[in-house]
Amino acid sequence: MDYRREDQNQENNNQQNNNSNEQNQYNSKADEPNSYKQEEERRVVWNSDDTRDDSDKVDAPVISKQNSQPNQTIYEAGETAASVEESREKNNNKTKKRRAASWLSPILGGVIGGGLVLGVFPYLPNQQEENTPITENASSGQEQSPNFTKTSASKNNSDSIADMVEELSPSIVGISNIQNQQSSFGFENNSNKGVESGTGTGIVFKKDGDKAYIVTNNHVVEGANKVKVSLFDGSDTEAKLVGSDALTDLAVLEISSKGIDSVASFGNSSKARPGDQVIAIGNPLGHDFSRTVTEGIISGINRSVDVSTSQGSWEMNVLQTDAAINAGNSGGPLINSDGQVIGINSLKISETGVESIGFAIPSNDLQPIVDELLEKGNVERPFLGVSMLDMERVPQNYQEGTLGLFGDQLNKGAYIDDVQSGSAAQKAGIKSGDVIVGINGKSVTNTGDLKNILYKETKIGDKVTMDVLREGKKQTFSVTLSQKEEES
């Protein structure tokens, strides 16, 4: 499946990112044997001068980058693996069993940490991408964060869209991702102020004394040497990155509160229903069309979209809308008929024959993440310490001949390619070649299942039970989940 993000790019920046991405040996679809490549193609576009589908799950592995047009970067669905921090070179003293699995080398690599890591790619706002298919992670009746302004849904629905736009527009800002140019010799040229490599949108959600805070998409600001914010009054100001999280695609910026007269109010996204009227506000195609308004409805709720990020693959819960989500809309608000922000626009599907399928991160899902980013600057997650691959990507003859699997055991689970030394998995006795098929009594059919259970249902320090197939026999291991920093 082919996923694409469209961004306003500088050609020099494209070339820089192409060179960087080629160095990641695990992100190249071309390395995977043709017989194991995905057959169905689907494009999903990030909307940072940039976006993620519906009730039928679409598989979205790891992505590799390649150019198509001067101001467009194409990412193709590639192998399902990656690293948490950096690409790890293959160990020279592989065992015979690992050599027998040489077909894995272009697919696997990386460590599951800070969360399970399944895919990595250079993920810049001007050339960001994401894979997007579909699951569930609905928030219901979640208590609202004190960091967000909340209003009761008491507005008269007869209020015009123009009235809502007029009220919200001062809290909508433009965001520019500024990056240093790289010289032809491979080092950064700091003699200038950098170039704008991508643009997006942000929402002012909090004002505290002389500071104001903006929420946007991580892919809008990722890789930036400097972030510039364009305010409603036409002025520009530099922003400080408070914190970001690639898996949930959220980031928080801090700016001076000077010139900020209002903040956006957030509603309860769990009350959204298919058919509800919504509007989107953003900066498509850069700041020349700032605060463009589009109208539509909620097309679906609790959609699950598989995305690949610089921290690995992730299954994201989203709202689906047919309101136009254009390049540059990323980070902008999806607003209900009461004038409340119920989502942050992030993704869309770009495919021939497919129109008006866009996605927004629900407000109830983003608020606890934003709270943690404000407090800690990052999101802490349990660390397992393995690199892995969906079993359905493993050739059947390898499953049967080398792993000793048969019958119903085939094509199910998360194949463990490598176990990091000193990790929680190694301490528990899990080895390379094992296949995880269950955790805490819940079935694991692929790496996404494992990740979602670990990240959404457990925390650091929890002890979990893992059902593992080893040479065709099921074994159970007790694993105490740790924090990444505790492991080497």
From TrEMBL:
Gene Ontology terms for molecular function: peptidase activity
Biased composition regions of type Polar residues, renumbered to the chain: 64-74
Residues in PDZ domain copies: 388-472
UniProt family annotation: Belongs to the peptidase S1C family.
Membrane-spanning parts: 100-124
EC number: 3.4.21.107
PROSITE patterns xref list: PDZ (PS50106)
Alphabetized UniProt keyword annotations: Hydrolase, Membrane, Protease, Serine protease, Transmembrane, Transmembrane helix
CDD domains according to UniProt: cpPDZ_BsHtra-like
Low complexity bias (residue ranges): 10-28
GO biological process: proteolysis
Official protein name in the record: Serine protease Do
Annotated region (Disordered), positions in chain: 1-99, 130-156
Comp. bias regions, Basic and acidic residues: 29-44
Cited PANTHER family: PEPTIDASE S12, PROTEASE DO-LIKE 8, CHLOROPLASTIC
Organism: Bacillus capparidis
